[in-house]
Amino acid sequence: MINLTINDQSVSVPAGTTILAAAQKLNIKIPTLCNHPDLCVAGNCRVCVVEQKGAKALVAACAAPVSEGMVINTNTLKVRNARKHIVELLLSEHRSDCTKCYKNTKCELQALANEYAFGDTVFLDLVEDHPYAIDRSSPSFMKDDSKCIRCQRCVRTCSELQYVSAITVANKGAHQKISSFHDRPMSQVVCTACGQCVNRCPTGALTEKTAIDFVWDAIYNPDKHVVVQTAPAVRVALGEELGYDPGERVTGKMVTALRQLGFNSVLDTDFTPDLTIMEEGTELLTRLKKILVDGDKNTKIPMFTSCSPGWIKFIEHKYPEFLPNLSTCKSPQQMFGALAKTYYAKKRQLDPSKMVSVSIMPCTAKKFEADRPEMRSSGFKDVDYVLTTRELAIMIKQAGIDFRLLEPSSYDSIMGDSTGAAVIFGATGGVMEAALRTAYEIVTGRDVPFNNLNITPVRGLEGVKEATVKIEGCTDDWKFLEGAELKVAIANGLTNANKIMKLVRQGKAPYHFIEIMACPGGCIGGGGQPIPTSTDIRKNRSNAIYAEDEHMKLRKSHENPDVITIYKDFLGEPNSHKAHELLHTHYTEREHY
Amino acid sequence: MKNKGLNKVDLIFEKVDPKEVLLKAFSMSPEEIIQEVLESGLKGRGGAGFPTGLKWKFTAAEKDPDKYVVCNADEGEPGTFKDREILDRVSYKVYGGMAIAGRAIGAKKGIIYLRGEYLFILPQLQKELDEFHKILNEIGYDFQISYCMGSGAYICGEESALFESIQGYRGEPRNKPPYPTTSGVFYKPTSINNVETIVTVMMIIKHGAEAYTQLGTKDSRGSKVFSVSGDTPTPGIFELELGMTVQEFVNEFGDGDTKAVQVGGASGFCVPRKKFNDTIIGFEGVPTGGSMKLFNSSRSMYNVLHNYLDFFAEESCGQCTPCRVGCQQLLKGVEKVKKGEVKSNYLNELIKLADTMKIASKCGLGQSVGNAFRTIVENFREEIIY
C-alpha cells in the first residue's frame, strides 16, 4: 500500500492507483472531462490538474499514479487559476449556443463552466477561425465539430470498446479534429451507428438525431393511429433520466406515460423477442438438421444472432464472408414493425396507410435499421420513427407529466403479452438463454436442466462467455441430436465480438450458436440509454432485467399466448412462408473504410 | 558564475578508430561505463539536459531483458542543424555510442529516429551502418541498429511521441510516469538520447571522464555543437566549450548590430542586448539544444514572435487543452494587440496564459512555448504593441 496526503488528509491505496481514485476514496472531488470509467486514461483535457508538493508543474490527477509520501493539494490558488484558464480555453473553441443546444443542462463542459468560468472571459473567440459543417449524414446521430472539445472519449470508445475506429484524430495543432477516413461523412464509413460515442460525448458534439418532433406531429394528427413499442432495456433505464437510481424498474409507469403522451396503442417489443426465439430457435435446429442429417454443404454454422443492428453493420463491414452465418431473423423491432402494419392492423381493423409505428429503443443503431430499404415488408415503412430512451424522457418532460405520481398500467393486448425470456433480451446472454429455454424443450420436451430455468453460465457482464449444454432424451424428431453437446458463445461490445470473429475466421471457434450484442452489457448499455454509463450502472440495469424475468408468470417464449395465437391465426408455423416474408431479411456487404 | 570565455573545441567531429574505442568500452563492465558517464557530468544535448549517466542507470536497473537504445535524430527545433552534420560526417560515432549505451543498459537493439526531411542522407547512412555492423561482428558483439524515418511532425522529437511514431501510431506524447527508462518504445525500458549526446559518450570513453570534466563549468560540463544562424556573417556549425557569455558569443558571430539572440530555438529564450554580458550559455543561464539565432536591429521582434507562435499553433499535437488552444490564443492575441483591436495590457493576460501552459501542459512542447513568449514580450514590448 502507498501512503499519501491529499488536502492534509492521509490515505493508503494500492500501488498503481491514480491520484484521482485516491481522492475519490477521501470523497474529495476533482473535476474531470476527458476521463471516463469505461476508457483508458488520456490525460489530455488537463481539467483535473492538481498541485504536488515539490513539483514545478501541476500533475493530471486522472493519469498520475500515487507515490509514497506524496503530498497533493487539489484546491490551491495555482490550481484554481490553471483550471479556470483551461475551462475558458475549452470554451473559447466551443460554439456555446447553450440555450439552443440539445445537450443544454446535460453538458459536462457547461457544468464546469458553471463552476469555473462564469462572467467575462479574457480569451478570444476561436470558433470563427474554424469553419465547420454539421455532419447529419448518419440516420442515427449528428456530429458537430464546432462543439467538440477534443477530449477523444469518442475516439477511445470507437477503438477500445468497439474495435471500429470509424472516428479518429486527424491533423495537428490548431487544425486537430475528430474525423473519419478521408473526412468522409459518417454514413460512408465503417461506423456501426452503435452510439457508444454519443453516450460518452461530454458536450453537444455528438448527439442522437432526434425524432421527437416527427412523433409529436403524428400523435397530434387526428388521421393517424400511432402505435408504440418499447424495448426490454428501456424500462430498466428510463427512470435514470427521471430522477430514479440506476436499476429501478418503471415498466408500468412508462406504459401510463406513453398513453398520456397520446399514443393510440401502447405495445411491448417484448412480444417479438418471443417470436424471434421461435423463428431463430427453429432456424438453428433446421440448420443443424440440414448439416447433420442431410449433409448439406451450403448451410453454415456457427449461427450468429441478428438482434443487434450495430453488430449487423459491423459484420457487414468487417466480416462480410460470414453473412451466411447470420440468422436471417429480423431484429425484434423490425419484426414488430412488420406485424404492426399487417397482423395488428388486421386484428384492430386499422388502415395500415394511416398507421404510424414508433419504437422506443435503448439504441441509436435502431434508427439506422428502421431506415434500411429492406425493412418495408408490410408494404410501408415498418417502423416509422425510433426514439431513444433519452428522447422518451424528454417527451415525458415536455408533456409536463409528473412521472413519480403515475399509476402503473399494463400494455394493450394482441401484441402486448410477453415472457421473462423476452425481457432478458435486454442483457448480454439474454437471447442465448431465451433460445436455450425454448430449443431444449422443442428437442426434448423437457425444461432446460438448470435450476429454475436460470441458465447462469450465460449471464454476467464479462466480455466473452462460453457454455455447453448436453442434449439428452430427445424426442423422435430430434433423435439425431441425442447426446450432442451444444456449444455456445456470447460476446458483448464489438471488441469482444471481434475476438470471437477472429477465431471463427481462423476456423478455431468450436461453437454452434453465437450471440453478439454490439454494446457493452448488451442493450442495457446501449448508445441510446441514459448518460452517464459505467460498469456499475450497467450491472444495476442488468440485475433489474433478471429481476423482471423472475417476476414474470411465463418465462419461456413458446408459452406466450399472443405468440401462440399469431402462429395459429396468421403466420402458420415458425419459418413458414409468411413468417419468412415478414420476419426474415437479408444482408449487404459494405465497404471497409 | 564563472566565465570560461569562448573556446573552439574539436571533439564531436574528431576522427577516431571506432574499433579501438569499442574494445575499450567492452573491456569495461556496464557499471563502469555508467560510472564513467556519470562522472563526466554529461547532460542530454537535445535541450532538456537530463543527466545521461542517470538515465542509463535507471534503464540498466530495469529487469525486462528486452530493452532499447533509441537515438533521437528528429532534430526539429527551428534553427538547429547540427545532428544532420554529425550524422553526415561521423555517423560511425553515433553507431558506436549506441553500441556502448547498449552495453551499459543491457540492450541488444538500437533504433535511430531520423527526421523525415533527412531522407536524402539515408542511403549513405545505411551504407555506413552496414560497415559498422561488420566491425561489431569482428568484435563478436551482438547489437543491431536500424533506422526509422520521421514524417515531419515537430512533436515527434518529444521522446514519448517519438515512441508512438516508431510504433506506427499518431505522434502524441504519453502521460509520464511511466518514464521511458521503464516503458519506452514498444513499452520496453528504453534509453533515448540525442545524436550529439551519444557521440559525446564515445569521446568520454576514449578520453576518460576526467579529461572531459576539464571542459565547461560545474553545471554545464563539456563542449556543445552550436547551430549558428540569423544575422551573422558566419552561419554554420561550431563546437564550443560551454560556459561563455552571450556577449562573447555575439562578439564572435554577430554582425556588429545584434539586438537579440534566440537561444534554444522556438522553445528557447530570447536574450536582449542589455543582458548579453550577464547571461551564460548553459544550464546555469540559458540552456540550449544548439540553436543560436542572431537578430540585428533590422528585424521586427513582433515578426519573430509571430513566426514562433504560428509554428507552435501548427506543430502542437493538439492533444491537450493548454497547448492546443493556448497557442492559438497567444497567436491571435498578439495579432489583435498589434492591430490595436485590444488594449496593450492584454499582453499581461497572455503572459498569465503562457504561465498556465508552462505548468499545465502534458509535454515539453506546451510547457516551453512560454519561454520565447515571455522573454520576447518582456524585452521587446514596444515592438509587439506598435
How would you describe the overall organization of this protein?
The complex is a heterodimer of chains A (593) and B (386). Chain A has 593 residues and is α/β, with parallel strands linked by helices. Chain A has four domains: 2-75, Ubiquitin-like (UB roll) (Roll), CATH 3.10.20; 123-207, 2-Layer Sandwich (Alpha-Beta Plaits), CATH 3.30.70; 212-271 and 332-405, Rossmann fold (3-Layer(aba) Sandwich), CATH 3.40.50.1780; 281-329 and 419-530 and 551-583, Fe-only Hydrogenase (Larger Subunit), Chain L, domain 3 (3-Layer(aba) Sandwich), CATH 3.40.950. In chain A, 34% of the residues lie in helices and 12% in strands. Chain A is built from 19 helices and 17 strands. Chain A has helices at 19-25, 77-92, 108-116, 153-161, 196-200, 212-220, 238-241, 251-261, 271-292, 309-318, 332-348, 365-371, 389-398, 420-423, 430-444, 494-505, 535-551, 561-571, 577-583; strands spanning 2-6, 9-13, 49-52, 59-60, 71-73, 141-143, 168-170, 177-179, 206-208, 225-230, 265-268, 303-304, 355-361, 385-388, 464-470, 485-492, 513-517. In chain A, the strands form five sheets. In chain A, strands 2-1-5-3-4 form a five-stranded mixed beta sheet, sandwiched between helices. Chain A has a four-stranded parallel beta sheet with strand order 11-10-13-14, sandwiched between helices. In chain A, strands 12-17-16-15 form a four-stranded mixed beta sheet. In chain A, a hairpin with a 6-residue loop joins strand 7 and strand 8. Chain A is globular, with a radius of gyration of 25 Å. Chain A starts with a strand and ends in a 10-residue tail after the last helix. By secondary structure, chain B is α/β, with parallel strands linked by helices. Chain B has two domains: 18-213, Rossmann fold; 301-385, de novo design (two linked rop proteins) (Up-down Bundle). Chain B is built from 14 helices and nine strands. Chain B has helices at residues 18-26, 30-40, 52-61, 82-105, 122-139, 159-166, 195-207, 209-213, 246-253, 301-315, 321-339, 346-360, 364-379, 381-385; strands spanning 68-73, 109-114, 144-149, 190-194, 223-230, 236-241, 258-263, 269-272, 291-296. In chain B, strand 7 (258-263) and strand 8 (269-272) form a beta hairpin. Chain B is globular, with a radius of gyration of 21 Å. The chains are: A alpha/beta (593), B alpha/beta (386).
